[in-house]
Specification:
Layout (H helix, E strand, L loop, with lengths): L4 E2 L9 H9 L19 H17 L6 E6 L2 H13 L4 E6 L2 H10 L4 E7 L23 E4 L1 E2 L4 E2 L15 E4 L16 E5 L10 E6 L16 H6 L9 H16 L1 E2 L2 E2 H22 L3 E2 L11 E6 L5 H10 L2 E2 L10 E4 L6 H17 L2
Parallel strand pairs: 1-15, 3-4, 3-5, 5-8, 8-9
Antiparallel strand pairs: 2-10, 6-7, 9-10, 11-12, 13-14, 14-16
Helix pairs in contact: 1-6, 2-6, 3-4, 7-9
């Protein structure tokens, strides 16, 4: 029986090749006599794993040498506290609220800094993005925070804002949890990027932070030492015991990403083209349908998280039941917005999106 297609928003599906390799190495990693979960994080075996993971990720995301890559714990929610603890100096921080996650970020930052609302899309129920030219930026903000892809509401910044062009000298902080490695990153516009691994990189428990070196060393006195970016960087993400198995799984995913090709491209560039194809297929069908609809403005629709609704919501349960029977899992929308949501991360093959569209089409025909 074919494996079902898992559209979960996170923890999300992982590449089958990665899962198979991890299964093969579960009891004995490369002849060491140990599984990765059993080995010391200080030993030569795990040192090889984490060094390869960092090298591969730096290559995949084209991370410049002046940025440090940190493997941490706590997920995106914890980073909502850790970022202001490290960067705010208890001063002003500008927030662009574009959905649930950026709202959470701003609320959490109030514990450690002075958050200011630079822009919001709440008047459109988080279905548009405020143009950067309309943002109200503070002259003395320590940083500007955006969630570059909102998992729940399905809006995405397809181009990162150029803060310098907007007259701001503050570094840009991006929460790229749900679209990291799905597209290239313009690091010239970024000071810090963070994200939980459990959507595009690996299992829950690992958090990625990519931070420019000049932003290290400014942590508030209250910042726990294990969350001080300078300390974490100085110790090669080994100040405390890191999430070893999560790093290993992410490392396997990085190797898988490096093997991907599409239209003469490879790695993240190939994935971006593949993700455009997948998202276009699904959005084009939704837009042509009389039963389904998407509320997000077309210029900021997420390629990773596609929320959609049935015009007759009494059909929701029947739609989901039919989807499960067809091997299409985890399509129920977030409880705060309802409807449906298809998360089509890197590990979701084009065939999965085609199967979803086929089910949606067949279901619509039976209700015509």
């Amino acid at each position: 029986m074919a494996r079902p297609f898992n559209f979960s928003a996170g923890p999300a599906a992982m590449p089958v090749e990665v899962l198979q390799q991890a299964a093969d190495e579960m009891l004995d990693w490369h002849g060491s006599g140990m599984g990765v979960m059993e080995m010391s994080h200080r030993g030569k075996e795990f040192s090889a794993i984490i060094e390869a993971a960092e090298t591969d990720l730096r290559e995949l995301l084209a991370v410049p040498p002046e940025f440090r890559i940190l493997f941490m714990q706590g997920g995106g929610l914890a980073e909502n506290a850790i970022v202001p603890l490290n960067l705010s100096r208890a001063g002003k921080v500008d927030f662009v609220v574009s959905g649930s996650w950026s709202e959470k970020s701003m609320k959490e930052a109030a514990r450690y800094a002075q958050p200011l609302l630079a822009a919001s899309n709440s008047d459109s129920n988080h279905t548009t993005l405020p143009a950067p030219a309309s943002w109200t930026l503070s002259a003395d903000a320590r940083y500007v925070h955006i969630c570059s892809n909102e998992t729940i509401h399905g809006v995405e910044f397809h181009q990162l804002p150029d803060l310098k062009a907007l007259g701001s000298r503050a570094p840009l902080v991006i929460d790229f949890s749900s679209h990291v490695a799905s597209r290239t990153v313009d690091w010239s516009r970024v000071g810090l990027a963070f994200g939980g691994a459990q959507k595009n990189l690996g299992p829950a428990g690992l958090t990625l932070v990519v931070v420019r070196e000049d932003l290290l060393g400014h942590a508030l006195p209250a910042c726990p030492s294990a969350f001080d970016y300078k300390t974490v960087a100085a110790n090669g993400s080994m100040y405390n015991t890191p999430p070893t198995f999560g790093i290993y799984m992410a490392g396997l995913t990085f190797q898988w990403l490096k093997r991907q090709t599409e239209g003469g491209l490879s790695g993240v560039a190939a994935m971006e083209q593949r993700n455009i194809t997948k998202a276009s297929l699904l959005y084009d069908f939704i837009d042509s349908s009389s039963l389904y609809f998407n509320k997000v403005a077309r210029d900021c629709r997420s390629r990773m998280n596609v929320p959609f609704f049935l015009r007759d919501e009494s059909l929701n349960d029947a739609f989901l039941s039919g989807a499960r029977a067809a091997g299409l899992l985890q399509l129920k929308g977030h409880k705060s917005v309802g409807g449906m949501r298809a998360s089509i991360y890197n590990a979701m093959p084009l065939e999965g999106v085609q199967a979803l569209v086929n089910h949606m089409r067949d279901f619509e025909k039976t209700r015509a």
